[in-house]
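Hi all, long-time lurker, first post. I run a small reading group and we've been trying to get comfortable going from sequence to structure in the token notation. Rather than ask abstract questions, I figured I'd post a concrete chain and ask someone more experienced to write out its structure so we can walk through it together at our next meeting. Sequence below, copied exactly:
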Amino acid sequence: MPTAPRLKPLITRSQVRRKVREIAHQISRDFHGEPVHLVGVLKGASIFLSDLVREVDLEVSVDFMAVASYGRATNSSGQVKLIKDLDSSIEGRNVILVEDILDTGLTLDYLRRILEERRPKTLRVAVLLDKPSRRLVENVRGDYVGFQIPNQFVVGYGLDFAERYRNLKDICVLTPPPLLDERGHPRVKP
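-- Answer (accepted) --
Happy to help. Here is the structure in token form:
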């Protein structure tokens, strides 16, 4: 019989709060009063972006993109597809792509290429979590990085497993990751 998943705190809410402030202050310094356009990657980055935007001391506009690469699995499928595109042009704007986690680099590389084709003035990347041990695309990195983490499956603060756990205030390791049924749903006891 499989063991029930456990949640072990990895990064506390107070650590996250401090790091978000640090990243926001660095962005504010780097852009010297120029407006910035934050592009959040749905759904995982939504909480990070909402906290970040309140701490940035600049004129800020926001947009969102959505991609799929995980589905209901704990590992990336390796294929990225765009589900929701931007609502407005980014040409000539200072754009910061805001992502919850950078692991293989496939999603970030895909999004960066799409956005660069749209001729922003600058394009930077802010990631809350960086998992370098999983990197498949070597030249992908964050310009603003919150925490470097080990190769463990994490949930909370926007990160999920099968749409669960996004609302956790701490970032937690999910051990062991739940087993999935043939449709990709977490298995439940009969």
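A couple of things your group might point at:
Strands lie at 6-11, 36-42, 60-68, 81-84, 94-102, 122-130, 144-148, 154-155, 171-175.
The longest strand covers residues 60-68.
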